[in-house]
Amino acid sequence: MPHLLPIEVLRRCLSHARHGFTIADARKPDLPLVYVNQAFEAMTGYSRDELIGRNCRLMQGTDRKQAGVKTIRAAREAGQPVRVTLRNYRKDGTLFWSDLSLTPLIDAQGVLTHYIGVQEDVTHQRREQARILRHQRQLQVLAERLMRTEAEERLKLACEVHDQVVQTLALCRMQLGELTRDLGGAVAPPALGAVCALVETALKESRGLMAQLSPPLLRELGLAAALQNLGEQQAQRFGITVRVCVEIGHKSVPEKVAQLVLRSAREFLINVGKHAGAQSVAVGLKLKAGELVLTVDDNGKGVRTRRQVETADGGFGLLSIRERVVHMGGGLKVSSRVGKGTRVVLRLPLVQKRWKA
Ligand SMILES: Nc1ncnc2c1ncn2[C@@H]1O[C@H](COP(=O)(O)OP(=O)(O)OP(=O)(O)O)[C@@H](O)[C@H]1O
Ligand SMILES: [Mg+2]
Question: Could you state, in order of their start, the residue ranges of all structural domains in the chain?
Fold first, then answer.
C-alpha cells in the first residue's frame, strides 16, 4: 500500500500554490466548480463563494470566440488533457492572459469524475512577446529603409563620379590629344606620354569605382550575369579567386528577390575580402523546392563565435540582411569551422507570402 498523504496536507499544499488551481465536477450538469485555491481567487478577483457552483466560462465573459475555447471543447470530446492560453477577465473587467492546463480525472471504474485546472497569469509574458515582435518589425522596416537609402546614395555617388570626375578626365584626354597633334611630327616630351597614360588609368579607375558603387542594373543584365559581374569585381578588388555558378535556367526571378540576392552576395563577398583571409570563394545560386538558394563558401580562417555573426556586435551587414530575408519569408545560415572557412546560405522563396513593402 503506497504511503498516502493526509488530505489536510494536500489541501494546504493547494492553498499555498503559486498557480491558480480549480476542480470542476464532471458528473453534474454544466461542470460546476467545486474547489478553487487562494491563488485563483487572487488572480481573478472573485471570492471562493462567488465561484463555487459556477462554470469556469465565467472567466471569459462575452469573449467566447477564442481559439483556446474551441481547443478545450475538442479535447473534452476526445477525453484528452489540454493546455491553452485564454483571454480571461477579472471581476473588475480587466483582461488577463491565462495559461490553462485542463486534465480529466477518471476513477477506478473508468468514469470521468472531475476536471483539474491549473492556471498561470501570463499577461506579462504576452506583453513582452508583443513588445519584442513590435521591435522586430521596426528593425525589419529600418533594415529595408537602410538598404534602399544605401542603394540611392550609391547611385547618386556613381552619377557624381560620372558627371564630374569622368567628364573632367575625358576633357583632359581630349586636350592631351590636341596637344599631341599640335606637335606635328615632333617627338613628344616623355612627361606628356606619362600624363596621357595617367589620365587613361584614372579614367579606368573611375569607371571601376562607378561600377562598384552602382553595379550595372539587374534589369539590363539579369541576375546570373549581374552575379558573374559582381564576382569579377570583388575578385579584382580583393585579389582572390571567385567562382560563380548559377543554375537557375531561365527561371524568372521577381526583381525584389533578385535585388536582395545580389545585395546579399555583395555583402558576403565583401565580408570574405575583409574578414576571411581566404584565397578562394565559391558563389552558387540554385533553385530548391520553390526557393532560391545562394551559397557563398570561402576557404578562409572561419568565424570564431556564433555571436559574431548573429548580433550587431560583429557589424551591421549580416544583421540587416537577415532582417530583410526573414521579412521576405526566407532564412540566413552561417556555418563555419575555425581554420576551415565559412559557408553562408541564404534562402528566399520565389513566391512571397509575406511581402509588405
Ligand atoms: N566570411 C567570413 N569569414 C570570417 N569571418 C566572417 C565572415 N563573414 C563574417 N564574418 C564575421 O562576422 C562578423 C559580422 O559580419 P557583418 O557583415 O555583420 O559585419 P562587418 O562586416 O564586420 O561590418 P559591416 O558589414 O557592418 O561593415 C564580422 O565582423 C566578422 O567577424
Ligand atoms: Mg559585413
Answer: 7-121, 123-214, 221-357
SS3 348: strand
Which of the listed CATH numbers 3.30.70.270, 3.30.565.10, 3.60.40.10, 3.30.1050.10 matches domain 221-357?
Answer: 3.30.565.10
What cell numbers appear for 308 in the block? Answer: 559574431
What is the per-residue pLDDT for 346? 98
Ion ligand 2: residue ranges with CB closer than 5 A: 271, 315, 317
Q: What's the rounded Cα separation, in Å, for the pair 89 and 198?
A: 79
Residue having the nearest C-alpha atom to atom 22 of ligand 1: 315
Q: Is 39 in the pocket of ligand 1 (CB under 6 A)?
A: no
The reply to whether ligand 1 has any atom less than 6 angstroms from the CB of 238 is no
Which runs of consecutive H residues, i.e. helices, occur in the chain?
7-16, 38-44, 48-51, 67-78, 123-160, 167-182, 190-213, 218-221, 223-238, 255-271, 306-310, 317-327
* CATH architecture observed for domain 7-121: 2-Layer Sandwich (3.30)
The answer to whether the CB of 230 falls within 8 A of the CB of 238 is no
Spell out the residues 6+ positions from residue 32 whose beta carbon is closer than 8 angstroms to its own.
24, 25, 52, 53, 54, 55
Predicted confidence at residue 173, as pLDDT, reads 93
Neighbours of 126 (CB within 10 A): 16
Q: Is the pLDDT of residue 149 over 90?
A: no
What is the pLDDT, as a whole number, of residue 152? 83
pLDDT digits (tens, 9 = 90+) for 91-145: 999 999 999 999 999 999 999 999 999 999 999 999 999 999 999 888 888 887 8
171 contacts: CB under 8 Å, gap ≥ 6: none
The single-letter code of the amino acid at 149 is T
Does the pLDDT of residue 2 top 70, yes or no?
Answer: no
| Cβ 296 vs Cβ 249: under 8 Å | no
What is the structure's pLDDT at 314? 65
